[in-house]
From TrEMBL:
<dbReference type="GO" id="GO:0005737">
    <property type="term" value="C:cytoplasm"/>
</dbReference>
<dbReference type="GO" id="GO:0003729">
    <property type="term" value="F:mRNA binding"/>
</dbReference>
<dbReference type="InterPro" id="IPR012340">
    <property type="entry name" value="NA-bd_OB-fold"/>
</dbReference>
<protein>
    <submittedName>
        <fullName>General stress protein</fullName>
    </submittedName>
</protein>
<dbReference type="GO" id="GO:0003735">
    <property type="term" value="F:structural constituent of ribosome"/>
</dbReference>
<dbReference type="InterPro" id="IPR050437">
    <property type="entry name" value="Ribos_protein_bS1-like"/>
</dbReference>
<dbReference type="InterPro" id="IPR003029">
    <property type="entry name" value="S1_domain"/>
</dbReference>
<dbReference type="InterPro" id="IPR035104">
    <property type="entry name" value="Ribosomal_protein_S1-like"/>
</dbReference>
<dbReference type="GO" id="GO:0006412">
    <property type="term" value="P:translation"/>
</dbReference>
<dbReference type="Pfam" id="PF00575">
    <property type="entry name" value="S1"/>
</dbReference>
Length: 121
């Protein structure tokens, strides 16, 4: 019986890579999958850019299926979210003077388009 629990930090070895994620053999013999969405906080186009077969990895256990002896794993849960936080902060920054949100310009653009593309004689 596996002692791995949800939320645990465990080590394993990458045993296979597919377009959707990486398979990991955990220390206690349980098989795990790091889904592509759990590889990094950044956009992941190719899992092979981050892990390779044979790599030793430290991962966080997101979920465990004891009957199937499989676990859902995450690499990004152990990464500092610095870039993600920076992106979030940039989105909260006020707009510089002289710039207006698109919503404020939308009505003006619609009216302008109607004048330019009005009925043809």
């Amino acid at each position: 019986m596996s002692t791995i629990k949800r939320g645990a930090i465990v080590k394993g070895k990458v045993t296979g890579i597919q377009p959707y994620g990486a398979f990991v053999q955990l220390e206690d013999g349980m098989q795990g999958l790091i889904h592509i969405s759990e590889i990094s906080h950044q956009f992941v186009k190719d899992v092979r850019d981050y892990v390779h077969v044979g790599d030793e990895v430290t991962v966080k256990v997101l979920d465990v299926d004891r009957k199937a002896r499989r676990a859902s794993l995450s690499l990004k849960a152990l990464e500092p979210a610095g870039e993600q936080e920076k992106r979030h902060m940039r989105m909260k920054m006020p707009l510089k003077s002289g710039f207006r949100p698109l919503k404020e310009k939308l009505r003006e653009w619609i009216e302008q388009s109607k004048k330019e593309n009005g009925p043809k004689p």
